[in-house]
Design a protein that fits this description.
The structure holds two protein chains of two kinds. Chain A contains nine helices and eleven strands. By secondary structure, chain A is an alpha/beta fold. In chain A, strands 1, 2, 3, 4, 6, 7, 8, 9 and 11 form a nine-stranded mixed β-sheet that branches. In chain A, strand 6, helix 5 and strand 7 form a beta-alpha-beta unit. The radius of gyration of chain A is 24 Å and the shape is globular. The N and C termini of chain A lie far apart (79 Å). Chain B contains 13 helices and two strands. Chain B has a two-stranded antiparallel ribbon. In chain B, helix 4 packs antiparallel against helix 7. Classes of the chains: A alpha/beta, B mainly alpha. At the A-B interface, helix 1, helix 3, strand 7 and helix 6 of A face helix 1, strand 1, helix 5 and helix 12 of B.
Chain lengths: 285, 285
């Protein structure tokens, strides 16, 4: 009898748990829209670390104004700003023509740096050479004047690129490739970290990554004779520079404006430098 | 009376929960097809299934390289996994003393519990450099993915094949040995043919696992959207195509990834139905 009661209790418990599981699945779908008064930033994963750093310091000074930073990519950032899903969208590429109705404010400058393995003696690549490598016309380091083997079994270039849709890739394509397609034979990686890891471990590899992400594991080469660094990006001498943008639809709300002012202020720009990027004078695009 | 009503209620709730689990599967299928089919029909299924050029932001939606790569990598993994797995299953069910089997079996189950990202990590740190240094090419290749997948599907293959062999009625073996067969003759001449249906099901389910594996494959295969000409070439499977580009995809690009999902879904459905049919037929025999 008591065993029977226990079974019933177990069955009730199971039903209860099941019902709860069901509620968990359904409720989050209904309860959208009420996310307090947090300022929401969403978009480029290249801008995200800088925005998070700035948000962290901003919240220390303004306890009553939480800031919520999300990733998703530049395209998602443009979409979020357009649709109002985020107060501020983040983009690591310039706006396309049909996106120009958004207000864009550059909070930092970045550059796409071309990186090779430290064992590779090459120091400079021209735009034509880089395009040739990525189109697939130049396949051996020997064709670029590198004598002998760098360290591998052959001197065949291992071309590493980012995946379709990446902001870094579109900045690279716009600056280097023009209308030409990147060879489908290139290795495709979905993050700056993995591109860097491959270039660091394969002596024949070449890749492109955000300037802020260049470490001593890889060697940044000069592009058309210009080294990517703060001075050349700021002066505009380095050709593969790109802005990190905050996007708003129409004029920013007061809370958003306050955060943007903070990012453009002395403290915000100090954090931009700390994150490895190039500060801006504060003028909007 | 009250108890009976409670009973009926519990049954009703359990029925509802069971149906909601099935409904979720249905919803997922409907969602994938709703998202993926329109773009396939708009551009013609032929351009998806037979197209060679994958450039989704520029209107190239050819999935053929990915379809073929998925097939090649899966079959390659089977070449590695089937001999190893079958040998292990035979050893466990027929030859190993109980104490040894009780050590080996949990070890294999542990293998199933290792997260796929760990397999990928081992692939990047060990398999890829070995291939690059001793065989050539970029290292990130079909061969690397084949080896990693071959190991990953072993637990599935071994446990189902072992069950199939143990399900063969005892008199089969006893009869064979009474007629003068040695133990190994009885295993290969009588037991394995009798367990053929279950073993085939094990292989097909392992194939399903290999087709669906994503993370480990992305990390070691190089992700170039080409038809590989040699095991040392990089390639891209259907799953890695989706996971690689999902983060930043928008608009048609995103729909094209859902279309990739449709192809994958059909792929897995076919494999699973074949496996189910095999098991049913095997049982009848």
């Amino acid at each position: 009898m008591s065993r029977c009661a226990a079974m019933t209790r177990a069955a009730q418990l199971l039903s209860l748990c099941g019902g709860f599981a069901w509620l968990c699945l359904v409720l989050p779908g209904c309860g959208r829209g009420g996310h307090g008064h947090a300022l929401v930033l969403a978009g480029s994963t290249s801008v995200q670390p800088i925005a998070e750093l700035i948000a962290e310091h901003y919240e220390l000074e303004h306890h009553d104004r939480p800031v919520n930073v999300q990733g998703g990519g530049s395209t998602a950032g443009v979409k979020a700003a357009t649709e109002g899903a985020a107060d501020i969208g983040m983009s690591s590429r310039k706006l396309k023509d049909d996106e120009k109705d958004l207000e864009a404010i550059a909070i930092a400058m970045d550059a796409v740096a071309l990186v090779v393995n430290p064992a590779n003696p090459i120091t400079d690549l021209s735009k034509e050479q880089v395009a040739g490598i990525y189109v697939g016309d130049l396949t051996r380091w020997g064709e670029l004047g590198v004598e002998g083997l760098i360290g591998g079994r052959t001197d065949a270039i291992t071309v590493v690129t980012r995946e379709e849709g990446s902001g870094t890739r579109s900045a690279f394509e716009e600056g280097v490739m023009g209308k030409a397609d990147i060879s489908p034979r290139a290795l495709v990686q979905d993050s700056t970290g993995t591109v860097r890891a491959i270039v660091a471990s394969d002596p024949n590899a070449i890749g492109y990554i955000s300037l802020g992400m260049v470490t001593s594991e890889v060697k940044a080469v000069t592009y058309n004779g210009v080294l990517p660094c703060e001075q050349t990006v700021e002066s505009g001498a380095y050709a593969l520079a790109r802005p990190f943008l905050f996007l708003t639809r129409g004029a920013p709300s007061r809370a958003a404006q306050d955060f943007i002012d903070y990012a453009l202020g002395v403290e915000g720009q100090r954090l931009v430098v700390q994150a490895g990027c190039v500060p801006v004078g504060g003028e909007s695009e | 009376m009250r108890a009976r009503r409670g009973e009926a209620l519990i049954e009703r709730v359990l029925l509802f929960l069971a149906l909601s689990a099935v409904a979720m599967l249905g919803l997922i299928a409907v969602f994938i097809f709703l998202q993926g089919l329109p773009i396939m029909l708009e551009h013609g299924p032929g351009s998806f299934l037979l197209g060679m050029r994958w450039a989704p932001t520029k209107g190239g939606f050819g999935l053929l390289p990915m379809i073929l790569s998925s097939v090649i990598v899966t079959l390659g993994a089977m070449v590695i996994a089937v001999p190893l797995g079958l040998a292990c299953a035979i050893f466990l069910s027929e030859i190993a003393p109980r104490r040894v089997a009780n050590l080996v079996r949990p070890a294999i189950q542990l293998l199933a519990g290792i997260p796929s990202v760990v397999f990928g990590f081992i692939g990047i740190l060990i398999v890829v450099p070995l291939i690059r240094n001793y065989l050539g090419g970029p290292g990130l290749s079909v061969l690397a993915a084949t080896i990693i997948l071959g190991i990953m599907v072993l637990p599935t293959l071994i446990s189902i094949a072992e069950d199939a062999i143990e399900a063969v009625p005892k008199p089969y073996k006893e009869g064979a040995m009474a007629l003068g067969c040695t133990h190994s003759q009885a295993i290969f001449g009588v037991m394995l043919p009798a367990a053929r249906g279950g073993i085939l099901a094990a292989i097909i389910l392992a194939m399903g696992r290999a087709v669906g594996e994503t993370m480990a494959v992305i990390m070691v295969i190089g992700n170039a959207a080409i038809i590989p000409q040699s095991p040392l070439d990089p390639a891209r499977t259907l799953t890695s195509n989706i996971a690689l580009e999902m983060g930043y995809a928008a608009g048609e690009h995103q729909k094209a990834l859902f279309a990739t999902g449709v192809v994958l879904f059909v792929f897995i459905m076919i494999l699973n139905s074949v496996a189910t049919l095999r098991v049913v037929r095997g049982d009848r025999r």
